[in-house]
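Priority: medium. Attachment 1 of 2:
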């Protein structure tokens, strides 16, 4: 069995995921990583998100990184749902689900 492995100079890792498990993830119609406007591209977890999106897209899925570009969201200091504006973050996720017919 082969693995999909991501190695970066981050506090955690390397990550090895069985390829069959990974292929289940990339079957999702769209995946988005959201970071607020208080993080820049040099932040290690943003780099990991960007790399993960590239890996996912390499398997034919549609992953995007949103870095401080979400209308109506400013002052976000952390990852999704870990800040005071988590209702706005939930609205962004809800929009993604609606766009892809996954909102039940």
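Attachment 2 of 2:
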């Amino acid at each position: 069995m082969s693995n999909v492995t991501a190695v970066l100079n981050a506090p955690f890792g390397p990550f090895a995921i069985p390829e069959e498990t990974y292929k289940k993830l990339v079957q999702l119609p769209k995946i988005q990583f959201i970071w607020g406007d208080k993080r820049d591209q040099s932040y290690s977890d943003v780099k990991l998100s960007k790399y993960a999106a590239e890996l996912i897209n390499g398997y034919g899925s549609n992953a995007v990184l949103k870095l401080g570009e979400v209308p109506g969201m400013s002052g976000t200091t952390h990852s999704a749902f870990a800040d005071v504006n988590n209702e706005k973050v939930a609205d962004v996720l809800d929009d993604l689900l609606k766009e892809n017919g996954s909102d039940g």
